[in-house]
# Entry
Amino acid sequence: MVIAARLHVVQVMNATFMPVVVSVRDPDYSDRHVLDVLFDDLAVGYSLGQPYGDRLMTWPDFERLRMSRRELRHRAASLLDASMERLRIHGQPPALMLSFDGIESSVLLCDEFWDGLEGRVPGSIVVGVPARDVVVVTGSRSAAGMAKARRTVDRMFYAGGRHLVRQGLLVRQRGMWQPMR
# Structure
């Protein structure tokens, strides 16, 4: 038992901390997890190890780290930025899908990526994030793209499943994500 506890401490101390965007309504996450409010019903958790998202950091994990929340956020953001080379974009306009190691929702946190996409879609950038591993991207001035993004979100929520994130669409304005009205 002592060996298992020591092994867990060593794993936590050497872990990588990838930020993962999750829904505060996801029954798999609770007050025992270290979550930072992103906005509305979205939060950022911190995945311990790979595959990313399998296990989010708990408060006991965080206490064993002996680091500040600021340092945790900084280390997680640095790893996310360094990992962006693995991001893939699939499909054709009017709507594109992202692929990023099963934590596609985390891409919402990558301002540099979204800044680079500005002007490449008609209107403002709009995303659907129905699940942690699904992000569909379109532009606010693309009626076909908006319809496809809404259908994707609706289908995911109708089918159900684990790690659902958000039922509505998000629009990026002035570098910030907001619920689409």
In short: The CA atoms of residues 48 and 54 lie 8 Å apart. The longest helix spans residues 143-159.
